[in-house]
Predict the 3D structure of the following.
Amino acid sequence: LDWDAPIKTYLSGFSMYDSKATEQLCIRDCLLHRSGLPSYDCLWDQLKDRSELAEALQYLKPSAKFREKFQYNNMMYAFAGYILENISGMRWDLFIQKYITKILGMNNTYFSASTLPTHFHHNAAFAYEYDKARQAFKRVNYFDGKASAPAGSMYSSVIDMARWVIMI
């Protein structure tokens, strides 16, 4: 994988709304949030998988010029995961597990809320939101997004995260 090679090198038929982005977008652009696209977070509930995300990119209108400015966008991280899958022939989670987490001894890192072992929940941090009607906080369940998984579906322990930091 060449961080600066155009995505078209890896995905024939790749297209973005912006023709310059179609020709020049690379993995580095995706990960540095400089695709020109705003977050488009409303799409997560509508996409079944990352191939639908890749297809949808051609219809998403940018809100800035390509590489003009930083615009936080998780969707492009999910798209980078899709590219990794296409290049490697492996699901992104299996690739990361085989080539990163297992090598680093990160044995308490999981890639889906649905695969978390029961013991993980006993000492895990959870998100909460304020319910105005009940005037109380309520726990929010883990999000298990299929299409967005490479953008944030890793669940880990502090010991495993320390292993990651030491590696860097």
About this structure: The mean pLDDT is 91.
